[in-house]
Amino acid sequence: MVLINALGVMSLLASTANPASDVASDSATTTADASEAEPKWKGGPYFTFGFAPMATMDINAKFHPGLRYDIESGLAWKRGRVRGYFGPDFHLMQYYGRKKVGFGVDAMATFTLRHIYARVGAGTAFRVPASPNVNDTRPMIGGLLGAGFVGRLESVEGRLGVDYDARVDTTGRVAQTLLFTLRLTVGP
Asked: Which residue spans within 58-155 are E strands per DSSP?
């Protein structure tokens, strides 16, 4: 009789213990599913190639047309449809009527949200004309602001936009450049 009562108590304890463990494992599964459902920031390297017809206006309101080629690389993070890109942008500038190529580098930050982007950068440039003579150049410092539209296919992004670049040379002359940009970005 004692043996039967002991077996009954043990089976009662076992049946009460199992539902508790099932509830605990169900809540652990629910918590794990909820944490997987929340989007997390994912990151990695990116690479961008850009091409832009441009016009630089000097202090005398004379403009110098040309082409600018950009190569940008760095680290990017994404979460859902929001992406942030941070890295240096190296650019070459070919002005019409001049054999020497201008060049520069900017530290860039670009943010995309759904189908729009905004970018900002600061850095230096060389051989940007700031006078009516396209060959009269000095080292410059300044920055860039840009915005436009984004088309995305998984980890490839195409951008179409407008950039405004303003630089000051060592004598205080200002060169302002308007660029119509086409860019292709590969990254996370």
From this structure: 63-79, 82-95, 102-113, 116-129, 137-153
Vertex 178 angle, CA 173 and 182, to 5°: 140
Name residue, tokens 């990116």.
Answer: 46
Over the stretch 75-106, which tens digit does the pLDDT of each residue have?
A: 999 998 899 999 999 999 999 989 899 999 99
Same domain, 5 and 70: no
Distance, CA of 81 to chain centre: 12
The alpha-carbon radius of gyration of the chain (Å, integer) is: 29
Listed residue (125, 89, 122) closest to 104, CA to CA: 125
Q: Which domain holds residue 19?
A: 1-38
Place of tokens 């047309």: 65
Q: Is the pTM of this model over 0.85?
A: no
Which tens digit of pLDDT belongs to each residue from 16-50?
A: 555 444 544 455 455 555 455 556 888 999 999 99
